[in-house]
Amino acid sequence: MAQAIRNAKVPPNSVNLEEARQRVFEFFRSACRSLPTVMEVYNLYDVATISQLRSTIAAEIRKNDHITNPKVIDLLLFKGLEELKNVVNHSKQRHHIVGQYVVGRRGLEQQELAAKEQGISNFLKNFYNSNYS
Amino acid sequence: MGLGLLASKAMRPTASRLLNFQNPNNLLLRTIVSKPELRKPEPAAAQPEAPLVDLSPRTPVGGARVHFSNPEDAIEVFVDGFPVKIPKGFSVLQACEVAGVDIPRFCYHSRLSIAGNCRMCLVEVEKSPKPVASCAMPALPGMKIKTDTPVAKKAREGVMEFLLMNHPLDCPICDQGGECDLQDQSMAFGSDRGRFTDMKRSVVDKNLGPLVKTVMTRCIQCTRCVRFASEVAGVQDLGMLGRGSGEEIGTYVEKLMTSELSGNVIDICPVGALTSKPFAFKARNWELKGTETIDVTDAVGSNIRIDSRGPEVLRIVPRLNEDINEEWISDKTRFCYDGLKRQRLNDPMIRGPDGRFKPVNWGDALAVVAEAAHQVKPEEIVGISGKLSDAESMIVLKDFLNRMGSNNVWGEGISENTNADLRSGYIMNTSIAGLEKADAFLLVGTQPRVEAAMVNARIRKTVTSNHAKVGYVGPATDFNYDHQHLGTGPQTLVEIAEGRHPFSKIISNAKHPVIIVGAGIFERKDQDAIFAAIETIAKQGNVVRSDWNGLNVLLLHAAQAAALDLGLVPQSEKSLESAKFVYLMGADDTNIDKIPKDAFVVYQGHHGDKSVYRADVILPAAAFSEKEGTYENTEGCTQQTWPAVPTVGDSRDDWKIIRALSEVAGVRLPYDTIGGVRSRLRNVAPNLAQMDEREPAALPSSLRPTFTQKVDPTPFGVAVENFYMTDAITRASKIMAQCSAMLLKK
Ligand code: SF4
Ligand code: FES
């Protein structure tokens, strides 16, 4: 699988939104298929699981779910593919992966949490934070 | 303190003089004394010198205070020319202490009898031909004591040399290193060279059980441990075998030391012969941070110091408090600390549909609990606080449940008809120190030796010093002092109350009679009748009068007195059986089978103990070593714990958890800081705000129904089955498990 990604070519532009959509799914699948290799290459077993990484990828894709212009989608796909290539080719190092997709992901969660914390007292905010604030 | 000072005093002129050997004899004589003037010391001349010394009042050693019970008995002695007034009967050593001079010592201990066998405390007394052992010599009027003369110094050097003759050079591998009397005093008073070239003697180590490690070669035969065991602990386990250089401390036969106070020999042993087994080779004492706090494993509230390094509690040692624990603590207090590291809850957890716990974050856990609490009727909400809960968390729990509309909140060990209205009805009115005055004891359904070892030590002290009579009603049990076993059940009480029992005479003849009732009786259905009988006995024996209140209740756990002060008493027996939402705040000794199957159970606590098996949500809390909490002991003295180490994992202080939960549940409690909770406490129970003070209860007016109900003839039960394992912390402790396996008589 990894070999296929390494040799992936930039496809021609998508003609319509439907095609772009299909390409996104393709991209997601190939990314998912490369995850076992990624786990192996970067030795992520003790910090993340495949399913966590998968949902990280899905979340990254969903971040752009409001985009309807196929050209923009093509560009984002291109960038995604580039990133995926870099990852699979081991052009990155472990801490990049951990920082961006494992811990960075938690940061995202915390942002969501912060949104939930609107309208609660300072006491409760500190309480959630730690015992000593 | 004094030792460092003395050391510098002793050393100052030495160094330079030793270096230049002006006298060729110095080389030939191979002398041991460190200073030329010590080689042929002359007794200090008895000239009636005008005191050249500074006569301004000095501070007594360790803040020693003298109390003159009878002003005529005061005598005056001179310590290094400085006059001091002391009561008759003081020893020379005590007189020196009052004068602010610290005399080196090994065998003397102010709470033990005087042995006078180490000879380290020699001082010169004018007109006496030889130096005298100051600990054993009574001070006489006009005595002129010299503590700083060449004779005294040479005597100390000599003693030191003899002691070190057979003491191994173990200091680098000795656990006592750094807090060793022998080390300190040989630095201060010893010679800087030895003449000893032979082999040192060695002694076989003894096995004293899982708590005390022995390295008997290090023993200097001061016999403090022997005296402690027989005088304070009341067990004749330790003794001295052999004579002369064959002298050994041992247990005569292969036997373990089975006292509940055995750990104290570690503190009193001046050298490293008796050290703590669990602490062996764990740390050096100068690496440790000491936190002065109190103990919560029983209702005595012994004052302790928690020694920690980083996040780990490494040992617990006693702190002096004359009113509560003197300077001893029980083995459970001292060695339970390894339980603080095991079985800890560190994340909030929710039980999933598969019955396994899943760690979640605080927000989710509290949301689940709040949701569940809102789905049941207010009457179906029940809260129980545990044995180790502090007063703050109990009042917050009560406030929270009240705001949820429920009043079903109580503390463990308190049952429906427990009297919480009259404070005198549940605390130790005589006070622990006050027990020393007593001359007759009636113990009702209580085994003080296992329920409150420090109170038992006081009773023992009283029995040995006043020859107080002890009568005991309850199941057969162990006592370490003379007692009469009067009976096993409440009928005996009735007999005493009706004057049909010989012991009624003893009570009514006693000047200071004391009745101690065990809190185990709170669990009985007929407790009103029993208390009525006891009050009758008290009335007939004149136990409660304006100058003496001898009617006591001995509580069982640290939270009980405060819980009763705050009125955490169950409204009805049945409320637990019909509960749908149960909040267990550290309650591990509640019968969890009584909780209905469909109830939602929240467990807030620090250990994965019994109740966790039934819990649906776990909220991790801080243990007593990690939080600031108010506790009231059995005599009504309010004290506070201080955090020694940080909390484990993601746990929080108890009161904060409930405060946060109240907000998530939409019934926000009006305090945000511990200060806020304390001012709420002050409103409910003002005595809980008076730190370190014993608030005596007002004299009771008899409000109980007198002798109306029939007592239930079932004998009294045993409240504490296993001394070593009574609560979540001690049950998690490996050392306590070893103790119960090896030391409890089966
Ligand atoms: S073991 Fe310690 S306390 Fe006991 S006699 Fe020896 S030195 Fe003294
Ligand atoms: S302290 Fe006086 S002889 Fe030991």
From TrEMBL, chain A:
Its main location: mitochondrion. One of its GO terms (biological process) is response to oxidative stress. The keyword tRNA-binding does not apply. It is a peripheral membrane protein. Keywords: Electron transport, Membrane, Mitochondrion, Mitochondrion inner membrane, Respiratory chain, Transport. InterPro entries: Complex1_LYR_NDUFA6_LYRM6 (IPR045299), NADH_Ub_cplx-1_asu_su-6 (IPR016488). Transmembrane segments: none annotated. It is found in: Mitochondrion inner membrane. GO terms for cellular component: mitochondrial inner membrane; respiratory chain complex I. The keyword Transferase does not apply. PANTHER family: NADH DEHYDROGENASE [UBIQUINONE] 1 ALPHA SUBCOMPLEX SUBUNIT 6, NADH-UBIQUINONE OXIDOREDUCTASE B14 SUBUNIT. Belongs to the complex I LYR family. This is NADH dehydrogenase [ubiquinone] 1 alpha subcomplex subunit 6. It comes from Pisum sativum. The lineage of its organism: Eukaryota, Viridiplantae, Streptophyta, Embryophyta, Tracheophyta.
Automatic annotation (TrEMBL), chain B:
It comes from the Eukaryota. This is NADH dehydrogenase [ubiquinone] iron-sulfur protein 1, mitochondrial. Residues 151-190 form the 4Fe-4S His(Cys)3-ligated-type domain. GO terms for biological process: ATP synthesis coupled electron transport. The keyword 4Fe-4S applies. It comes from Vicia faba. One of its GO terms (molecular function) is metal ion binding. Residues 73-151 form the 2Fe-2S ferredoxin-type domain. The lineage of its organism: Eukaryota, Viridiplantae, Streptophyta, Embryophyta, Tracheophyta. The keyword Translocase applies. Gene3D superfamilies: 3.10.20.740, 3.30.200.210, 3.30.70.20, 3.40.50.740. Keywords: 4Fe-4S, Iron, Iron-sulfur, Metal-binding, NAD, Translocase. Belongs to the complex I 75 kDa subunit family. Residues 288-344 form the 4Fe-4S Mo/W bis-MGD-type domain. Its cofactor is [2Fe-2S] cluster; [4Fe-4S] cluster. One of its GO terms (cellular component) is membrane.
